[in-house]
Amino acid sequence: MTRETSLAATSIGVALLVLGRKAAAWWLTGSVALMADALESVVNVVATSAALAAVIYSQRPADANHPYGHAKAEYFSAVLEGVLIVVAAGLILRESWLALLSPRAPDEPVLGLAANGVATVINGVWAAVLFRRGRRLRSPALVADAHLILADVVTSLGVLVGVGLVAVTGMLWLDPAVASLTALNILWSGWRLVRESVGGLMDEAVRPELLARIRGIVATHAAGAIEAHDIRTRHAGRFTFIEFHLVVPEEMRVGTAHEICDRVEEALKAEIADSVITIHVEPPHKAKHHGVVVV
């Protein structure tokens, strides 16, 4: 089992544990805000299961039908998580409206808040772990899972404050109001998640600062060539694809040009993990002398 698969599988266990405690908090209190929080955890269980499936599939080796591998499968999981977030937010808003029309005081607020608080701490710790390891492994599915859990943590903190205020002040309308704010926060998280995932599916280029590093590496390690141009990049899961045209002198032997390409590839792979590099060698008359990396 790979590290990505192990983390995704553990996420399912954590999500089920948190769901159990939040469901207990809702059952003890009858609070619509705590119900909304528990509903978000149901989404987490489904989403983490999808993330595990995506991580397993993304690690399949390249084949005849998928010569670039299966890494993009993780983005589909992230999009699904975003869609589920939106669905959960819609359900929460519906329940909030119904509760606002007929508000009621929560039962056993202390026990309910205690159960929910423990679940929130568990979620917060696990979100931090997923963020750190997911970014290190460059796994979109794990990072998306971390975002989802972090949104759940923020939601839970708001719910704890809201239900606590209801218990102290007796203002019953605060319960559905907090649930509505929870839904809006979930919607925002879902939108960000979908936007980032669609960017990966659409072959979004690397960040400007990383592109600058790539240009610098090519300029430093392509001694003997004339220039490099048309540098293009894209992400696919943990892989970074880099391709460009390398202009070499007319009289340069094929073997020498190949040595330059090997040197540049080794330098790029040493700096950028899981990079896939394609270099097209061209004669001098193909030089563009504009917007290029001059070596």
From TrEMBL:
Molecular-function GO terms, alphabetical: cadmium ion transmembrane transporter activity; ferrous iron transmembrane transporter activity; zinc efflux antiporter activity
Topology class, membrane: Multi-pass membrane protein
One GO CC term, this protein: plasma membrane
Coiled-coil stretches: none
Keyword Nucleotidyltransferase assigned: no
TM ranges: 41-57, 78-98, 110-131, 143-167
Cation efflux protein cytoplasmic domain span: 207-283
Main location, first listed in the record: membrane
GO terms under biological process: intracellular zinc ion homeostasis
Keyword field: Membrane, Transmembrane, Transmembrane helix, Transport
Pfam families: Cation_efflux, ZT_dimer
Cation efflux protein transmembrane domain location: 11-202
Compartments it resides in: Membrane
Domain of life: Bacteria
Family according to the record: Belongs to the cation diffusion facilitator (CDF) transporter (TC 2.A.4) family.
Name of the featured protein: Cation diffusion facilitator family transporter
Native source organism of the sequence: Elioraea tepida
